[in-house]
Design goal:
Layout (H helix, E strand, L loop, with lengths): L5 H39 L2 H8 L2 E26 L2 E28 L2 H8 L3 E3 L5 E3 L14 E26 L4
Protein name: Lipid-binding SYLF domain-containing protein
Organism: Antarcticibacterium flavum
Pfam family, one: Ysc84
């Protein structure tokens, strides 16, 4: 009986092509979400436009989900831009412990005031301490944002509600496009 590997090879070529196309579609959809989140920040407070233009870099997490019942967690994926160019991707992870219950979705942006702050983030294991404060964006809030150690955090609530008195911190991982 003569068997041919041709059908099997064609199947694997099709499978690899389909997987690559799907990954490209997911990336394009994600970057569209990032662009929409940036637009939402600027629409909420037009002064954010000046901040995006003046900082050394920024990381936008368009969809962060957070949930808690005593122990809480949050996660989201982001895109990192320096001098207006996409340079990498980032992951946000958060764990909190304390009196808390609920769930919420929000967008978050980290603004990096200088190159030293960007370089700390790009080392790949960046953490924001529990006592770091994030500004919840309201109209006019962007003009009074304060940087701490060269970083400012701005959040834009999307949906849900949380009641919390908790302690925790955020951790970020970074993947550079230029040095995978």
């Amino acid at each position: 009986m003569k068997t041919s590997l041709k059908p099997l090879c064609l199947f694997f070529i099709f499978l690899m092509t389909f997987t690559f196309v799907r990954a490209q579609d997911e990336r394009e959809e994600f970057l569209k979400d990032v662009k929409e989140a940036k637009t939402a920040f600027v629409q909420k407070d037009p002064a954010m436009s000046k901040l995006f233009a003046s900082v050394e870099a920024y990381a936008i997490f368009p969809n962060v989900g957070k949930g808690a019942y005593i122990i809480g967690g949050a996660a989201g994926n982001g895109a990192v831009y320096q001098s207006g160019n996409l340079i990498g991707l980032a992951k946000l992870r958060q764990v909190d412990v304390g009196a808390q219950i609920g769930g919420q979705a929000y967008s978050q942006v980290l603004l990096f005031e200088n190159e030293a702050a960007v370089n700390r983030f790009k080392q790949g294991k960046y953490e924001v301490a529990a006592n770091a404060s994030a500004v919840i964006l309201e109209e006019g809030a962007a003009s009074s944002i304060n940087f701490r150690d060269g970083v400012a955090i701005v959040t834009l609530p999307k949906a849900g509600a949380m009641v919390e008195i908790s302690v925790g911190g955020q951790k970020f991982e970074y993947q550079d496009f230029r040095n995978p």
